[in-house]
Amino acid sequence: MFEALPPAPTDKILALIELYRADPRPGKLDLGVGVYKDRDGRTPVMRAVREAEKRLLASQETKTYLGLVGDAAFNMAMIRLVFGENADTARIRAAQTPGGSGALRLCAELIKRSRPEATVWVSDPTWANHVPILRDTGLKVREYPYFDADTGTVRFEAMLEALAKAESGDAVLLHGCCHNPTGANLNEAQWTALAGLLADKRLLPFIDIAYQGFGEGLDADAAGLRIVAAKVPEMVAAASCSKNFAVYRDRVGAAMVMGTNGTQADAALGHMLAAARTLYSMPPDHGAAAVRIVLGDPALRADWEAELDETRNRMLSLRVKFAEALRQRSNSDRFDFIASHRGMFSRLGLTEAQVERLRNDHGVYMVGDSRINVAGLPEDRLDDLAKAIVAVLD
Ligand SMILES: Cc1ncc(COP(=O)(O)O)c(C=O)c1O
Question: What is the mean pLDDT of residues 357-380?
Fold first, then answer.
């Protein structure tokens, strides 16, 4: 039965990890992987999460099923974290999901069930898993222009122009903050203009917020989403706790839906849960329970926010230092955009051949589109790295 199967498509980033592992060179550098790393190259368990896990272990009396929607307190805490303390909770619902990926899938399923002929518009480029998730759900996908590789900035006018041609009832997938893979984000005025267009054209905002707290801060990173929420009647959002709580393997996320009223939001949630029932049934409990404890305990929450601040500030300072090293080595401002980008990623704007030369000649690993993980930059070897990058430019 399986002999007729062609090889399954491989994930480029996972393939890169294998290449990196097999490389015997001691000074090799992994800028490809999509997890936060501290200055020692570790991805530690956050202090508040560890404490919450201890409490959980001591207090948990059962591991019986959680139910399709997951933990109500976790869901409400996530609505407030993402939509803000003044969120219109009467018409927003959330379902706990296995990671942000699970949340994206439930939002996509809801769109498919509500309007099967809808097209979902995604940024060019976007996270490598967006299009497969949408296509597997059976939705049509189209791209809107997003990134200008020459300047490292958002092609906002072109983006608006393309979306103005979308059909009413289509959905627009947006990165709430810290755009992956480019690191280039919309500013407040752009979010406001975009929200106006979405509302006028009755396009459904579908916001993926996977890095809240990694860009400018917890509230600042959700500002765009909140601008949109204040303007439109309906929207969906997929949140991930993988990065900002560093609970990657525990699979923690939330699929959220805002309806024109509570009854419609309930109906939409019901359809997301019906989809969940056939996909994975119920979400895993452990990581979301830890997140719920952290968000609900003022002291733990303060400690989590402090550690998240440290994480973000480390990335910001690496951005500034790396841009400066590149400025010195290249004798140009070509890479200055790295300092103004936000989040864990930036795209350097190198060709595939240059990326390959960096890997072969210098042991520097990055994704083929020249996306780097800023958190993987070596603080003590930034100048060497800048030198290697400039060496492959010509
Ligand atoms: C843009 C974006 N969305 C969603 C996710 C989902 O992450 P997870 O399913 O691990 O929570 C990621 C993870 O890398 C991402 O980069």
Answer: 94
